[in-house]
């Protein structure tokens, strides 16, 4: 069991749902605050941003990912794109305070040591490690020493790389680890999701698991919760048509709310796993099941034979499985055809 803010993450707790704002604020703190407001309205547990300085993150001549080229100026470098999407450290602190005011948990993915230090000074509730840093073991160790919960995305990685990251965290004494299955493509194709790999992570490492989703739509996160995901992270935007690399693979507020409502319905429907007649089924059981009834008039003293009996609704009498208790016994009274037989009618 892990606590993030006032939320508990564990096998008996509802899924912790993160609205991944990322850089969809487009470098505007005002837009970021509007996103926080919208995330609160959807019922999200947390909203997550990305904190970085472009010069600490990427070389100035680094190319963009293919999906970024499709959604932004393909002639622009990754550095120039990220520079426009930066928020200052003071702005992140402002957003954290605004989240506290609005009653939603602020989270952020740091991409460099300096940014991690800012989050530490702000007493962030948990650290998110992006998939790109799964092999950045010095960085993971640096963050793990804060002894805060760590949510680790595992896109692009194999079990050996994930194990290395976990070992690095555990050597610091930090056991507060949540693993998110992830496919690092925007958008991710359904055929590539491999959602069962989330269960592989759970079985292999015995930590709570979740799913960071980059598919279009809401089906896969809902399925992930049905399979046991305890954390769901999904990209969030106010408008898919805004300029920027991630808007088109994100959910707008009404979609995000629909996803959360569906997840909560699925969680409610999972139940305790005990197979029994539920209270709500009691009436239907009486109506839909059948009882042993007479298929002819039976006179008092007659020995009841199988061909004198049939089964019909309702199920308020002797069930068909017990018909053997009736055959061969004598009728204590006259019994008309289509009568539900009870034991007090028999000798």
Number of domains: 2
Q: What gyration radius follows from the Cα positions, in whole Å?
A: 30 Å
What general form does the structure show?
A: elongated
- Low-confidence spans: none
CATH topology of the largest domain: TIM Barrel
CATH superfamily of the largest domain: Aldolase class I
Order of helices and strands: EEEHEHHHHEHEHEHEHEHEHHEE
Helix-strand makeup class: alpha/beta
Top keywords for this entry?
347 residues; alpha/beta; two-stranded antiparallel ribbon; EC 2.5.1.56; N-acetylneuraminate synthase; SAF_PseI/NeuA/NeuB; Aldolase_TIM; 12 strands; TIM Barrel; 12 helices; eight-stranded parallel beta sheet; Type Iii Antifreeze Protein Isoform Hplc 12
What does this structure look like?
There is one protein chain. With 347 residues, this protein is α/β, with parallel strands linked by helices. It folds into two domains: 12-270, Aldolase class I (TIM Barrel), CATH 3.20.20.70; 279-345, Type Iii Antifreeze Protein Isoform Hplc 12 (Alpha-Beta Complex), CATH 3.90.1210. Helices cover 34% and strands 16% of the residues. The protein contains twelve helices and twelve strands. An eight-stranded parallel β-sheet has the order 5-4-3-10-9-8-7-6. Strands 1-2 form a two-stranded antiparallel sheet. Helix 7 links the parallel strand 6 and strand 7 (150-153). Helix 1 (29-42) packs parallel to helix 5 (89-102), helix 7 (137-144) runs parallel beside helix 8 and helix 10 runs parallel beside helix 11. The protein is elongated, with a radius of gyration of 30 Å. It starts with a strand and ends in a 35-residue tail after the last strand.
């Amino acid at each position: 069991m892990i606590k993030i803010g006032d939320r508990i993450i564990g096998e008996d707790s509802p899924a912790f749902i993160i609205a991944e704002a990322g850089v969809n604020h487009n470098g505007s703190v005002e837009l970021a605050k509007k996103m926080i407001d919208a995330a609160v309205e959807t019922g999200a547990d947390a909203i997550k941003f990305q904190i970085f300085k472009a010069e600490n993150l990427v070389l100035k001549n680094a190319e963009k990912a293919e999906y970024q080229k499709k959604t932004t100026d393909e002639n622009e470098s990754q550095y120039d794109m990220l520079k426009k999407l930066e928020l200052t450290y003071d702005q992140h602190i402002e957003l954290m305070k605004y989240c506290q005011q609005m009653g939603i948990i602020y989270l952020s993915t740091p991409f460099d040591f300096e940014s991690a230090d800012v989050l530490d000074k702000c007493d962030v509730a948990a650290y998110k490690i992006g998939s790109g840093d799964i092999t950045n073991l010095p960085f993971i160790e640096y963050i793990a020493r804060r002894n805060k919960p760590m949510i680790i995305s595992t896109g692009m990685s194999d079990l050996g790389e994930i194990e290395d990251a976990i070992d690095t965290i555990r050597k610091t004494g930090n056991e507060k680890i949540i693993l998110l299955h992830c496919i690092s493509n925007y958008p991710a194709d359904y055929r590539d999701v491999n959602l069962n790999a989330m269960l592989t992570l759970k079985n292999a490492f015995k930590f709570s698991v979740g799913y960071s989703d980059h598919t279009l739509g809401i089906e896969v996160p809902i399925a992930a919760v049905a399979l046991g995901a305890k954390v769901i992270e999904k990209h969030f935007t106010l408008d898919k048509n805004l300029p920027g690399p991630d808007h088109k693979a994100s959910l707008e507020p009404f979609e995000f709310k629909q996803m959360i409502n569906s997840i909560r319905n699925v969680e409610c429907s999972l139940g305790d796993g005990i197979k029994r007649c539920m209270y709500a089924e009691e009436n239907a059981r009486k109506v839909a099941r059948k009882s042993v009834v007479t298929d002819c008039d039976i006179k008092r003293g007659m020995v009841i034979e199988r061909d004198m009996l049939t089964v019909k609704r309702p199920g308020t009498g002797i069930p068909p499985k017990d018909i053997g208790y009736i055959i061969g016994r004598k009728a204590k009274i006259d019994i008309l055809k289509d009568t539900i037989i009870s034991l007090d009618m028999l000798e």
